Each structure stands twice: as C-alpha cells, then as structure tokens.
Fold each of these.
Amino acid sequence: MQNFFKKLVLVILGIIFALFLFEVMARLTGFIKSAEVWKVPDFYYISDNELDYDIAKNFPSTLGGSFDNTEIRVESNNIGCFDSNYNGGKDTILLVGDSFTWGYVPFKSNWGTVIEQQIGKRVLKCGVPGYGTKQELLKAKKVISEIKEIPKLIIVGYYYNDILDDLLFSGSTVIVDGNLLGKKTIEDITKKEIKINEFTDEDLKNQLANFKKYCAPLSNTHTKISCFIKKYSTTIPFLFQKTKSITANIFGLKFSSKLAGARSAISKNNSLTRNLLFIPDNSGYDWIKDAKDKNFNNILEFKKYADSQNTKVLFVLFPSLEMVYSPFESFVKEDVPEVNFTEGNNLLKDFMDKNQIDYLDLLPHLKQYADINKSVLTKDDLYSESNKHLNIKGNLLSGMLISQFLLDKDYDVLSIEKKSQKTEEISTFLKSF
C-alpha cells in the first residue's frame, strides 16, 4: 500500500511538472496567446441620462482580452463609437446595434469595417454591447445630432435578445466605479408571470468586487478555481477545451457539456432569455407577448424616424449560434420545448413586410456556408462557441453578404461607384468561401 501511494505521488508530481513545462513553452513560443478572460476596461462606458449608458469618447486603445486565441483591443473615437475618428463627410452609412454590431473581434475584422472596404463608403460603426432596439434608436439620434449630417442609410444590427433589452429599459443598467452593471433582473424568467427586481447599491458593489476577484458576480469554490486558472494559466483552459472537443466528437455535445459541468450555462433561464421571439404566443407566457409587442413598436418607431429624416433604414437580422448549428438548437429545445425558430423568425419578418421595413435575414445565408451539423466550433467556423458571437470568419462573411445586398438592392442614395465590378468581386469571393 505504501508503494502504491509513493507511485501515486510521483505520478501527480509528474503531471504537475509536465503542465509546468507545457506552460513555459506555450508562453515562450506564443503557441497559446492567453486564456479567454474578457474584461471591458474600466471607464469605457459612461452614464447617459437617455441611454442609461454609452461608450466614452476618445477612449485609448486597451486590451480587453482574447477569444479563439485572438487578442481584442477596445477603444473609441471622437463621437463615442468603436471606430476611427469622424472628420466630417457626406454619403455616410450609420451602423447601430448591440454586441453583434460592436463585434467581439479585432476592429479591422468586424462586419462594419468589411462593408466600408467593399462598397467604398464611410461607415460609422456605432454598435454598443447590451443595447436593445430602443437604445439603438436613441443612439442613432444622438450620433446624427453630433455629426450634424443625415446618413444616407442607417443599418440596424438586430439580435433576438433585443426583446428582453427593450423590456427592461430604462434604468436597467448603471455605472459603478467605471464598470457597467445590470441594475434590473427578472426574478424567475421561467414563470408565467414575472417580477422585475432591482439590485441595491450594496448588491452592485458586491457583484463588482466578485467580478474583479472571481470573474463572476457570485463567489463560490467553482468560480474561484475557474477564475484563477483563466487568469494564470494558458495550458489548462487549452487542454480542457481540447478534451471537451474530443468527447463531443465521440460522444456528442450533450455528454461533453455535462462532463465539463457546463449544463448550468445552458440552462432553461438562459435559453429563454436569448430566445423570447421564438416562444409562441399561445405558450402561456403572456409577458413574452407583451415584450414582443413593445420591441416591434420600437422597430416601427425606427422606421418612422428614418422617414422623418428623409433617409433609409435597413434591419440586418443576425441569427444566434443555436439557429445555425443543429446540435446547439437541439440543446435549446431540450431546455425550452416551446422554442420554434421558424415561426418566430417569420413573425418578425411578416411584421416588417407589413410595415414596409427593409431587412436582410442572414440565417439562410449563414446556414448555406456553415457546417450546420458540427457540435464543436473552431475559428474555422462562423461563431465563437465561448462567447456565442460571430468570430472573425463569421464577421467577414456577414460583411460580404450585407455588401452584396446593398449593391443588389440598388440604394440609389448611396451612389456607389463601380457597382458592377464590386458586385462581381463579391460574388467571386462568396463562391470560393
């Protein structure tokens, strides 16, 4: 028995030494750049009386973290957008939206930058993470007032959690010590009737302290260990992800996620939050129907505002990861059987058709280019599995598809030069993508 324990200790020490060597080699060679720890820099956001919060102006380029082994720097320009400085000019396009428009990728790789490069027009890239449709409308008005120029086109990056964001707005977020925190929360989103609670100032300060120490608003043994590993090790998260990928490929996504303890992250509560549009009106969640109506009214208000400014508005509908990749869709439906992606998407498009609102639904296009049966996503796919947003490749494809739409739609107000040549170049690119 004594020999057994000696051997066990030697094995454990051997594993620790091997991990140490791997860690050293990974850092020296840059094979693994860093673990995926994401933190928006302090004071990147500022309080705003109308919007609740906004991006601060002229924020210097600062490392926010990394996803898919790619570092992402955070900055802002002279009008409070994640963009290069605005120095005047006409024939502009204004982009507003949430984090899908802001982009969890390097600035040069986001879909707004791709559009600017492809059609040769100045694109003001003014998405703000966490915004809903109402805030996006207010942000558009604020930017237009600041630049004193009506853009030729407003593009709204629409994502389906805009419904919940609009429901909770306003007063849903606050700035505490330069950090953006959620002020409002739904007590239990799975109930037929909901109660919206507000955190106290003390609650918010405790959350912020836990975020800084443990990378999560709640402090427990799991979050402490997980945060420590993410902050100080590159190899363990890398090996963990590789193990998860191997088990998912062999045994399936559900087994892999349960083995990794990820089930809580894909809970019913989270699935409902991200997919309110896709819960049928007859499911018994009366508050969800009211939330949809509120969001749809804000979409209509956007159209009315654009008409009043004698400009155009285009809604780009960004699908969720679960809508594109079948294994993840089945996971959501296990949590919330009522979810119906097709019915919900058609409901939104029917509303836009009825009110003559231009839109581009990216879902069928992304599914055309994606390996929709994959259960483990890499940088060669269209989404980052870790943050649920489009990755660099997904942003590139989306930017090219939107550019193609703008050229085909023939928005005369844009006065795009060499349209035939640009259309052919994009078509050639998409054929080989």
Note: The chain has a mean pLDDT of 84.
Amino acid sequence: MKTTKHKIIATKHGDEISGKLVEIKLEDGKTEVYLSTILPGQFKGWHKHTRSTQNFTCIKGTVVVMVYDGNNKRYEKLLSDKEFETLSIPPGNAIGIRCISSSEAFLICTPNPSYDPKDKQEKIDLVLPYDM
C-alpha cells in the first residue's frame, strides 16, 4: 500500500483567491488528472490551452463554464454534481469558470494530451474584457 501527497496550489483571479488546483496523477512529469476547486461566487479564468483538449467533470457543486472561441462566439455550459457530464473543450479556446453553488465546487480535469508544465506555450493566461 502506498500514499501519495499531492501539491495544493492556491489559484487567484486578480488579487482574490478563487480556489485550489491539485495535481492528482502525474506521469513522467506531466499532469494526467487534476482537481480544480472554485469557491462560491468566484471566477477562474481566463486561459487557453494551445495543444490539449480539456475534459471537465463537476463532481461537487455547480459551475458555469464559459468558452470563447476568439471569433466573437461565446458558449456557456452548466456542469453540476446532479448530472455528472463531461465537457470537452478543444485547444485554442479561452476558458472561464464561475462557481454558482453555495459551497466550493470540485471539477476533475483530464487533459489530452497530458499537461506538460515545461511547455510554456501550452497554457496561456488571458485578460479578456469581461467576466462571467
């Protein structure tokens, strides 16, 4: 039997703590599975991944995921622990997520291919003129 301690990273939107990021499964230095938490009323975003599809499943709480494709098209999808749907977002789209539940929301993300923190062009933080 083996126990693995996971690194917990506080995430911010502007100057406010918005939640946490926990790398659950690492293989060869790449993140295969991570947990993202979002505090009630908080927003995580904007960012985009240039090479990987992001697959989000909400396992606790309710969130609104907003996707902006760069062609003035915005999409919104509600994810919650009532449905357990997985939303797949292709590379190149801006992603923002707001927790609309009264308690902290938990999302599991399985990027494909796995997230490589050494690849500085894979995740790009963005400043967009609107929040959700």
Note: The mean pLDDT is 89.
